[in-house]
Amino acid sequence: MHAIRAMTIEDYDAVIELMKRTPGVTFRDADSREATSRYLERNPGLSFVATVEGEIVGCLMSGHDGRRGYLQHLVVQPAHRRKGIANALVGTCLDALARHGIVKSHLDVLKSNELAHAYWRSQGWTLRTDIDRYSFIRGTSENA
Fold it and tell me: What's the topology of domain 3-122?
């Protein structure tokens, strides 16, 4: 049986190792301990981890800009998939965002991550084809 709890910066090492071991999930400079700490402080109580017998087996981070929610880095250890953990993490994040008045959320999925695309479609999320996302990196790091 799994438990869901709010993510803290003390969970960082375990979450990052889980991310690094998950195909289709990228680890960038923006995922540093310092950046993650800022994100958690800016969005308190909106990111969560799933544990089984005290071990972190899943994570989902979320935040908002005052209008829309953003979900990031849904990961679940392969051995613990298909047990409702991803759905519990998503539901917990969406409920937490709703308490802040946020009823519409977005997420990004790499085009090459077919497993993630299949999951989100199966959960009723809609692939947007009416917008394109543009990014800009200030500085020289291509891994930002």
Answer: Aminopeptidase (3.40.630)
